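Quick check before the chapter quiz. The format below is the same one you will see on the exam, so make sure you can read both the input and the output lines.
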Amino acid sequence: MSEEKVVLDYAREVVPKELRRSWFSMFSVLIAMGVDLSSVILGGELANGMPINQAIWSVCIGSFILAILCTLSAIVGSSTNLSTSMITKFVFGKYGAQVFSIVIGISLLGWFGVQVGFFANNAHTVLHDAFHLTINVKVLSVIGGLLMMTTAIFGYRSIEKLSVWSVPLLLGLMLLTLFLTLKNYSLPVSVPSGGAFTFGGAVSLVISIFIVAATTQPDITRWAKSKKDAVIATFFGILIGNSFMIILAILMSKAMGTDDIMKIFITLGLALPGIVVLTLAQWTTNTTNLYSSSLGFSLIFTKISKEWLTIILGLIATCLAVLGIYDKFMSFLNFLAIVIAPIGGIYVAEYFVVKKEFKRLDNKLDSKKIVIRSIIAWIAGMVATFLTTEKPTGLELFSLTSVSSLDGFLVGFMIQIILGKLWIEKERQEEVLEKNEIYR
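Here is the expected output.
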């Protein structure tokens, strides 16, 4: 394999057959994406805001729903072998895809900044409490951001290598931590009569924490050898990866009375393993955020190499972390659900049901400039998600499924099907009229 192929990430073209991967490669990446500190934070929030049995059930149901959504999106990626942004060229049109790429790119940059903030704040805690070292959080943000940029610069194959060797270590350390927690501390028998979360709201947050991954799943599964590889890797990778850390965090938070994961590590005498978990968990997850963001922006800045684009975006996202985007974590999750959730539903509907715009790809035709019906479906999906999202982020006027992000996905899905069928019927009638005019 030439040096060019090792570096080339095929951001704007089909992944070659000889470079496609088996299910285990993608499974490892997806598990690594799920094992992160944002899941720990969410687990702590759920543990403090609702009874333990409801919290765990909300994670299981949310992760199951998410696994299905991600798998549908994954099939589109494995069938086209194109990135999410390239897929949206055929669903939204050239200009519509550019709007999508900007939105998804900015969202993922913000998420990268949030994750770097998690890393910096928790690194500050463990270094201060366990080793009596005081390093400014902003300095740690810069260090973390630069570290997490490295693998994203070289693309999927670099991310794959990091995930394959780090996942077993991460899972082993976290299971050891849970074992020691339950051995030395007991779960509370009593549960609160009320809490900060409704069951539907908790499920929605579990979905929201990974909703961008449902939409950007093709960025991973475009490397799949087959649809079967994509389905196995995605369903089980998301189901296990998204639920593992959240449930562990719920159990440890309930047993030890704190949702600060680093303090839990220190209390158990696991400061060094805590640093390893902190670093690897954030690195394996956050590098994929920057990777997908760079794929999105590569559709806009076509004259800049993906490597340099990744470096520039990584520096911008690191600055967001330094400026404190971390403090807006829960609001940012809800915002992502509103903007991003409908998009996956739209291109899934186009691929599986409408079956119109992807024919241009099959026939090696360029995309349209804009696909109005897809833009309408996106707007409708965002409005639906906003109206069903809990206050203060949304208006909470009504609910379809009690999970606002799922509402947005389904509304985008249904509107795309309805408009797609109407458009096809309209074009068919116009063709009939044209033929009649010719024969007159």
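If your answer matched, good. Residues 84-131 form the longest helix (48 residues).
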